[in-house]
Predict the 3D structure of the following.
Amino acid sequence: MPDLQMRRLGRTGLEVVAIGLGAMDTPHSPEATATVHAAIDAGMNFIDTARDYAGSEYLLGQVIRERGRLDFHVATKTFARSADGAQRDVDRSLSVLGVEVIDLYQLHDISTPDAWERSIDEDSGALAGLRIAQLRGLVRHIGVSTHNLEVLRLIIESDAFDTVMVDYSAFAPESAALIEAAHERDLGVIVMRPVGGSGRTSVMRGQIDRGEAGPLTPANLLRYVLSHPGASVAIPGARYPSRVRENIDTLADFMPMPVEEQRGIEAAARAFDAS
Ligand SMILES: NC(=O)c1ccc[n+]([C@@H]2O[C@H](COP(=O)([O-])OP(=O)(O)OC[C@H]3O[C@@H](n4cnc5c(N)ncnc54)[C@H](OP(=O)(O)O)[C@@H]3O)[C@@H](O)[C@H]2O)c1
């Protein structure tokens, strides 16, 4: 296996291979279990799922049982905003995954001020529920995902989480400054949608096949994300083993992208979205 760059997932202290697997869409594939096994066999040691990703926790539970051990860090999420709801979701995740403790449990998609306020209520919010699960030894670390930069700022300032999951890519470069702020506070930063999401990548793959892609390739998009020193782990989604192997090859060859090249790929991403 090639030498793969490891990064520390902020204050969790977990050492993670800098490219993991986002398992949101993986179940929607005839090669679902093969994809997860291929990811782990290729060296990925961080896999993201959620209660809300249909079939995803079940898929990971199946793979863990097939391997006879848990040989990667598992991160899942709850859409519950209440303490009781979050605790119920932790119990369900443990049972579906077939594990005794979950490395990282995240509040899912806290992207409005209302969701934020409800979730962090000291007595009744989902964060309080995850803290109880942590005290019971069911959850090691607590994180949160957001699609909103204002909420991201509140998350960073709150100092209440170990990790944050954020949308960042050449298509969404505006998160860069807050990723730096999160990194300065020692939050682990998990980059979701690092290659721009499945709608874009299916068009991109057609362009690559026709030799028209220019700099917009999954490998370059991942290099762009990994070039941010605050990004702890990027989690490209994948439904096929060939994709996870390609993404690991990108990491094996990784060298930080020069700033000029970063500006070039952002311009190509803007042109892609405008076309
Ligand atoms: N917390 C949240 O609210 C939230 C929201 C969105 C996503 N996420 C997380 O972020 C993860 C990734 O997000 P995403 O899947 O929406 O976006 P993404 O990772 O930017 O894009 C996924 C797409 O990229 C394609 N792809 C990946 N590697 C490739 C390669 N080497 N060559 C060609 N195509 C490649 C995949 O193809 P195939 O599927 O065909 O293999 C898939 O269509 C999710 O799985 C989830 O864990 C979290």
Notes: The domain at 6-274 is CATH 3.20.20.100 (TIM Barrel). The chain has a mean pLDDT of 97. The longest strand covers residues 139-146. Strands lie at 6-8, 15-17, 21-22, 46-48, 73-78, 102-107, 139-146, 163-167, 188-192, 233-234.
